[in-house]
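Holo model, zinc ion. Inputs:
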Amino acid sequence: MSDLFSDEQITNPVSGADSGQGGSVSGHAMAVLVPYPVDKAYDYLIPEGLSVEAGDYVLVPLGRREVVGVVWGEAAGDVSSAKLKSVIMAYDLPSMGKVQRDFIAWLAKYCMSPLGFVLKMSLSAPGAFEAPALAKGYKKTDIKSSKLTAQQGRVLEALQDGLPRRASEIAEIADVSAGVVKGLLSKGLVEQVDIYNPAPCRKPDPYRERAQLSESQQMAADRLCEMVEHKAYHCALLDGVTGAGKTEVYFEALATALKKGRQVLILLPEIALSNAFLERFQARFGCAPALWHSNLSKGARSNTWRGVAKGDTKVVIGARSALFLPFSDLGLIVIDEEHEQAYKQEDGVIYHARDMAVVRAHMGQIPITLVSATPSLETMNNVWEGKYEHLSLLDRYGGARMPEVSAIDMRREKLDARHFLSLALRDEMEKTLERGEQVLLFLNRRGYAPLTLCRHCGHKYECPRCTAWLVEHKRGGALQCHHCGFSMRPPEKCMECGEVDTLVACGPGVERVFEEAKEYFPEARVMLLASDTAEHPDELKKMLKTIREGEVDIIIGTQIIAKGHHFPNLTLVGVVDADLGLQGGELRASERVYQLLHQVAGRAGRAEKKGRVLLQSFMPDHRIMQALCESGHGAGRDAFLEVEASEREMAHMPPFSRLAGIIVSGRDNGQTLEVAKALGKTAPQAEGLHTLGPAPAPYARLRGKFRYRLLVQADKGINLQKTLAHWVGGVKVPSTVRVYIDIDPQSFF
Ligand code: ADP
Ligand code: ZN
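Output:
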């Protein structure tokens, strides 16, 4: 990601036709960008009497529709004004700032996405452009009454200032149920009025009481606060094991930004947007943060979008798309779990939210903090090169110890093909349960078994639409494809040879480990936790609560359990297959497995009790297992990252070079292959540039489409985007075939 910093790219973002000044002459034309896959802003006439500037939101005709667009700058003048259509109206909203417009333009160019497509991400709250919805509010009337209960008295006191409030708000201030408010309504002491739904998170209180920070926390916090005070671009990595108190530290930086009246954006991987985090924020700042993710209601979306644009909403916690909200005065960005792959958006506009957030911070001249217990190699490399400041918290807060990690050599275990828990792990489980403590068995694989085959003819059950085995799910009674959702009942006879009762399950999924745990520990209370067993967030919340309250002895879980949760009585973590994910040789495979296992290991012994982690592995000498076993944080991890870095450097791979993936996909194999071959034949030849492929993608068929890949590897000095645009633009692509460009690819499937 260091390559984003070539000065040329940062200081010369191509900002379409934006002059940045914006004339407000009426009766002439201006360029308006619409949220569609268009490469440039189109000219529109500005009707007499309407005055608009660059950044203003306007309604314009587009084909037969009317769409919301953004005035992008002076007219290009490439269409005669007689042919131009007129802007219909301008919205009474704060205009989109120049930084945001420059950011959109820069990102479009960097990610090679149509400009309007990137704008669309900033306008993803259609309701924001309609009249805001009204809510019911209550205010005091002039009627007096002497016969009031204490509760009623408190309500009237809460409404003393004469301003209308919603029932829920009043109930909270007066500490009564909403029913009390309604009671006063029937007495005529309060009346109902229409009010606008207020923007969320308007008044977080930075001055509330907070925890006493440890010395190392205080030092890191001071640095971050200084950065916020300074109002300039600066990137710091906040590094420390899970439980080190990183959140507590960046909350301090947040408080500083709030004291200055500025806005804060905290990005989290979607999966980590948990209630626990929101409650913690609420406890610290006295109000809930504004949330932003793909599952919000239309009302909540438009409310937050407006609140952010007007500057009323102070703190947004969101998934990657929150980066495109139109902040009016952003003063700090925090990227928690910066190493997470979830920050990469793999469809639509293909971008990496962490990297783009750094660019956004740079353009807006504000500080940004990347937070992780297992920083990505890209980020560490930027630290090593002195581009990012390194703030390290060395220990767990309050002296809670790191768990002791050891590997179990599965080559020595004589397990039959239906069992997956080693003797050593079972022994340790038994001891843990006897002490009344909890065990987590981690396996990042949903379902019962990853492969089903026929014992008689050897036929393996594969998805008809994808290059992938069907995964047996006993609970759903189906064979499922984890890529496209294809599902079928397990056949009674083999579909290939017709023999009855010959299908066997191969390998473990969490459902199977669940069965095995029950077999060994029939008395234990066992719970299975995977995204398909706890589909609804409320359900997950309930299950997590059951665990915290000690009503579960053994938890079998996928990565859904790996993140952020804190179970004080959990002291043993068994990783059923520590090698999972290392096969296949993807660029970041080791790094990812290390990060995930480190995170899982962090579930053990977070309170006073010491934790143990056992890794079942067929390669216990692998440097990942070694690094994890070097207890604690510093030495093992950094040695691992350094070896990883030197291997990448030797292979001339990122962060020491740049990559771009080209994916060619289509329903017709012949046509798709033809395009892929044409790209291969015309691949750019230059020093410091290599093209690999085309080759069938690892998932050569996905959702019924055939897929081929090319990979471009380039020296950092090369203008990759320009080279790619020229090359890919020169190949004829029929409408049935799609070519995707993935800059800085994270996955290679
Ligand atoms: P991290 O974000 O590094 O995983 P957290 O900030 O979540 O760590 O802290 C871990 C636990 O320790 C939390 O329960 C938090 O409330 C507590 N904690 C952290 N710092 C302090 C402190 N200075 N005083 C009291 N409790 C703290
Ligand atoms: Zn499929």
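Residues 1-26 have pLDDT under 50 and may be disordered. Residues 463, 465-466, 468, 481, 483-484, 486 surround zinc ion (ligand 2) (CB under 6 Å).
Archived with the compound record.
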